[in-house]
């Protein structure tokens, strides 16, 4: 009885061991022959290949903000150039500050004073021709002249103008020569302390396109213009000595400084000079330190890092990306191929499960 029990026990253990062996062999056969497992391996390998290939050509982006502290020292991985906004702004401001003011003629005031001088000569000529000249009438002319002008005349000086022989010729010469001097620009005797002061000169308010850069010394002062005009006027129309003093006073009021500062033109000129400044570019060599550890990011640093990232993305050309992706694909294909060959090799080593063994299972 004891021997029978021992025999039954050994038989039972062998049966359980054989069942476990058959189950293991069946599972291995399932993995070797199952289409689901094969598709799973193929799809997984393809997904891994695509993921690695697509991610290999990307450049990691940096999300930087002004005031952020660098956690480490960063060097340039590639040489690049970028526009330095701060330096560009400083250069534009410097160029604008060095831009001289723009001055232009004051034709309205000149034409007004010239008209007053013509009217004065005509009234004196008309009074002489009428033969009714007297002190009262001369005084009336004096009052009208002194009321609207900066340079006053006395009754005796007005009367001295009667001695001018041909008043029409004199008036025509006065208008012609006065305009010649006025169009060149006349500055006040103390308008510019430094004769080398640079300024822009425009003949008219809308003549900005023909703006000229000049020095204060290139213009005639009011004193110089009066002296030259009286000389040329006396050469064109001989003046009696008794009339020269009155004529000089008329010219003094006519040829006052007519060069005036034009704030609008000055602002336009400064803006034009500011816009003419080309952007300032900085060149960074490969391996240069972009920022030290613990250094704070400024606007210039952030712009520099963005330019560095953009240059790296441009550097990853299509040819380089596909080479890198092809290498990655080759590595993945190699790994997958080794895995497939290993499975095939193990399949050939494992014996097939017979129908009898399936039946026992």
Comma- or semicolon-separated keywords:
13 helices, 361 residues, single chain, alpha/beta, 10 strands, two-stranded antiparallel ribbon
Mean pLDDT: 76
Categorize the overall geometry: rod-shaped
User: Biggest β-sheet, characterized?
Assistant: 4 strands, mixed
* CA radius of gyration: 51 Å
Task: Give the number of DSSP strands.
Answer: 10
Q: Beta-strand percentage? A: 5-15%
The helical percent reads 55-70%
**Lateral arrangement of strands in the main beta sheet:** 6-5-3-8
Structural class: alpha/beta
How many individual helices?
Answer: 13
Task: Give a written overview of the molecule.
Helices cover 62% and strands 9% of the residues. The protein is an alpha/beta fold. The strands form four sheets. Strands 6-5-3-8 form a four-stranded mixed β-sheet. A two-stranded antiparallel sheet has the order 1-10. It has a two-stranded antiparallel sheet with strand order 2-9. α2 packs antiparallel against α12, α3 (85-97) runs antiparallel to α10 and α7 (167-184) packs antiparallel against α8 (222-236). The longest helix has 32 residues, at 2-33. It is rod-shaped, with a radius of gyration of 51 Å. The protein starts with a helix and ends with a helix.
Explain the layout of strands and helices.
Layout: H1 2-33, H2 35-55, E1 74-75, E2 80-83, H3 85-97, E3 102-105, H4 107-130, H5 135-148, H6 155-160, H7 167-184, E4 186-187, E5 198-202, E6 212-215, E7 220-221, H8 222-236, H9 241-254, E8 259-261, H10 263-275, E9 281-284, E10 289-291, H11 299-315, H12 318-349, H13 355-360
Parallel strand pairs: 3-5, 4-7
Antiparallel strand pairs: 1-10, 2-9, 3-8, 5-6
């Amino acid at each position: 009885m004891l021997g029978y029990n021992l025999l039954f026990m050994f038989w039972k253990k062998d049966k359980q061991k054989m069942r476990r062996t058959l189950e293991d062999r069946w599972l291995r056969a399932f993995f070797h022959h199952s289409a689901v497992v094969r598709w799973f391996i193929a799809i997984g390998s393809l997904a891994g290949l695509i993921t690695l290939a697509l991610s290999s050509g990307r450049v990691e982006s940096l999300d930087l903000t002004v005031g952020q502290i660098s956690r480490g020292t960063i060097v340039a991985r590639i040489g690049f150039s970028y526009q330095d906004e701060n330096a560009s702004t400083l250069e534009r401001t410097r160029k604008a500050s060095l831009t001289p003011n723009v001055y232009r003629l004051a034709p309205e005031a000149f034409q007004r004073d010239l008209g007053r001088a013509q009217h004065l000569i005509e009234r004196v000529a008309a009074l002489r021709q009428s033969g009714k000249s007297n002190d009262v009438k001369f005084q009336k002319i004096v009052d009208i002249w002194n009321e609207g002008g900066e340079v006053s005349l006395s009754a005796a000086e007005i009367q001295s103008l009667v001695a001018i022989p041909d008043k029409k010729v004199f008036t025509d010469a006065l208008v012609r020569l006065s305009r010649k001097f006025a169009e060149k620009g006349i500055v006040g005797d103390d308008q510019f302390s430094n004769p080398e002061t640079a300024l822009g000169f425009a003949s008219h308010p809308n003549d900005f396109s023909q703006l000229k850069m000049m020095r204060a010394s290139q213009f005639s002062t009011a004193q110089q213009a009066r002296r030259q005009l009286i000389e040329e006027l006396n050469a064109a129309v001989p003046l009696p000595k008794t009339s020269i003093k009155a004529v000089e006073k008329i010219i003094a009021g006519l040829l006052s400084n007519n060069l005036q500062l034009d704030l609008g033109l000055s602002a336009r000129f400064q803006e034009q000079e500011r816009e003419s400044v080309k952007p300032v570019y900085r060149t960074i060599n490969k391996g240069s330190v972009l920022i030290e550890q613990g250094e704070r990011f400024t606007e210039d640093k952030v712009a520099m890092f963005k330019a560095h990232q953009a240059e790296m993305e441009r550097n990853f050309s299509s040819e380089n990306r596909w080479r890198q992706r092809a290498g990655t694909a080759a590595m993945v294909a190699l790994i997958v191929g080794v895995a497939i060959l290993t499975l095939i090799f193990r399949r050939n080593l494992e014996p097939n499960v017979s129908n009898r063994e399936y039946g026992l299972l």
